[in-house]
Specification:
The chain is an alpha+beta fold. It has one domain: Alpha-Beta Plaits. The protein contains five helices and nine strands. An eight-stranded antiparallel barrel has the order 1-4-2-9-6-8-7-5. β7 and β8 form a beta hairpin. The radius of gyration is 17 Å and the shape is globular.
Length: about 210
């Protein structure tokens, strides 16, 4: 299994609704036409999430959304990129965006709490209220799942940095408060750490107050 991340900045403040419509109704569904794509989901770094995060280095400070795809293996990376190129050629790509960090990451760990019953491999497929992500040096991912409200966690690495994603089925903000106070004890200082809200279809108004009138 392979994770492919994209931490995306929307470069036009007025384009969030258009971006969400494109990604959720066009781009994301198209990825599932590839047999090698096992999972795809996107989360938003809303203003409330920004207020709850505990670390943000210059590289990741601009991002608004985190997308994660799970591919069967590295053999599916070329077809994944080829589909993106085809959609770009068909004028089905979104211009007012840039990926501040993206690429394939190996899965290096997965955990599930006993109460959820499912295996660690099933955790991303369970419904959740959001995630808590930590980007940077490796941390103790197993410790994240000891937090009430966390169903499980997956950890990814690309040789340069590690991304640990805790899937939250409890109250996202309580989990963020708990993990925000503990993240420094789990490993080295992260490049970014904080909660991300789930993206629900047609509910894309987190940044409406930031949009010029």
């Amino acid at each position: 299994m392979l994770g492919f991340f994209s931490f995306t900045e929307i470069t036009d403040p007025s384009a969030h609704e258009a971006y969400n419509a494109w990604h959720q109704l066009d781009h994301l569904p198209e990825q599932f036409t590839l047999e090698g794509v096992r999972f795809g989901q996107r989360w938003v770094r809303s203003p409330r999430c920004r207020a709850a995060e505990v670390a943000s280095a210059p590289l990741l400070d601009p991002f608004h959304y985190m997308t994660l795809y799970l591919l069967r293996d590295r053999d599916w990376v070329p077809p994944f990129f080829a589909l993106g190129q085809r959609l770009h050629d068909e004028d089905r790509f979104f211009a007012a965006r840039r990926a501040v960090l993206s690429g394939p990451f190996d899965v290096v760990g997965s955990w599930a709490v006993p109460r959820v019953a499912v295996s660690a491999g099933a955790i991303p497929f369970r419904p959740s209220h959001g995630v808590y992500a930590v980007v940077g040096p490796a941390i103790d991912g197993a410790a994240l799942v000891e937090t009430p409200g966390v169903a499980g966690a997956w950890q990814f690495a690309d040789g340069e940095r590690t991304v640990t994603v805790a899937f939250v089925d409890g109250d996202l903000w309580r989990v963020a408060d708990t993990l925000g106070g503990a993240v420094g004890d789990l490993g080295a200082t992260p490049e970014w750490a904080g909660p991300l809200e789930r993206v629900d279809a047609f509910r894309w108004d987190w940044f409406a107050t930031l949009t010029p009138q």
